[in-house]
Specification:
By secondary structure, this protein is mainly alpha-helical. The chain is built from 17 helices and no strands.
Amino acid sequence: MESGTALTFFVSCFGVQVFMAYNGGATQGTIDVIQADGGWTETSIGLLGSMDKIGMTVSSTFWGVMLSRYPAKRLLIMGLGINALSTFLFGSMTQHWAMLLTKLTMGFTEGLQWVWSQLWILAKVGEDPLFMNLSGASAGVGNLLGTVVAGFGTAQGLPYGFAFHFEACMLFSFLFAGLVFSKEEYRVGTQDATEGGIPQRLMQHAAEHLTSPPTFIRDFTKGLDRTCSVMVMEAQPEMSYSEVWNNALYRNSAIVVALNMYLNMSIQFMWIQLFTNLFSLKKQDAVWSLLLVPPTGAIAGAIVGSCFKIKEETRVSVLRWLLALTLLSVLGAGITMAGLASSSLWVCYLGLFVVFMGSTSTTGSLTCISSAALKDDALKSLGVGVQQTLVNFIGLALGPFLPHAVMGAVCLVTGENARTAPHLIYGSGALCCLAGTLFASLFSALALRAAAAGVSKDAGLQPLLDS
């Protein structure tokens, strides 16, 4: 990779994405202060946490089209400027409608950054997994950094806006740095794909399907110029999406991946509130536990998950182990609820460690299995887009929102609130989070059944069913 391209990656891909993902960590690190200062209900605070993810989900298709028609640098500079300004305003406002609107705007422009970065890496770097993995890791780095700055900052008495003003300053600095790069460094057209070693057809499919729902794409593009080099939706069979979704092994594996993201997002979003209210931890101690328990559980899960070598002839036996690991997550959920019911902090930590280990250990293998279940290259790229839509909606959007919506409903029905009945309210939210383990085990079992049904059609693989 040339030095200019590497610099563009670390500034405009990795660096920008770190500080866009920072926002999610900063929100969960300040949610108690925002709720206390602004009088937010449990439902509305959950909606606030998911608004940027909703913006990402609904905007991806739009940005995929825009990147095929207009210079990438112009769009990125505009999007980054809007994102930085929205972030600054979010940290300066207290009106509910204004905070929801600015959060949605942040997500809308984050959708542009995500789509562009994937296409740019494919075009400029090629099939080297290092840079794609670094790009993906930027989200975790940013979320962790946001939690540290916001959580410890507000614990020391700083206003919640401090963390977001810091983020806005960093984003503005990346914007000015980006102005230095030439527009050729940002280009993601098909001519760049050829130079980067990526087949033009793969680039086209990636541009289409790393976005969101298919019917929206077809409706949106109906009146657009069919000569756009990146958009080739009309060349795809009408039943392609049905063919992908009707593949039971793909569908159930992809749903488990999305549910694993739901578990991670929902638990982490309400972590600080849960432990400060039910266990009377100081906020800085709750932040420390958030920085230790989920990452160590995820690392343990990644080590366990890396032991699986998935081949066509071993898919059924691997899925049996993955089902066992999802059932381990169910056990972890039970231990966690027992810890909450008995007010035992360490039992609760143990249960959550097991939940994170179980969910993380299955995600990578199930992603590989869901992709391998689709035989055609065009369907594989389409499947990536469909799975990402599931992850965006079920994991990133519903994760912060749904448990708080349940808590709000319990408050409404019982007439209690988080101060008068913290175990009832936060316990219902935690139960909603951990219920994801039950659904993950159900769909993992359905994936195993689908794989076994496919193997049973091949007499040469029949012995696996009896092993």
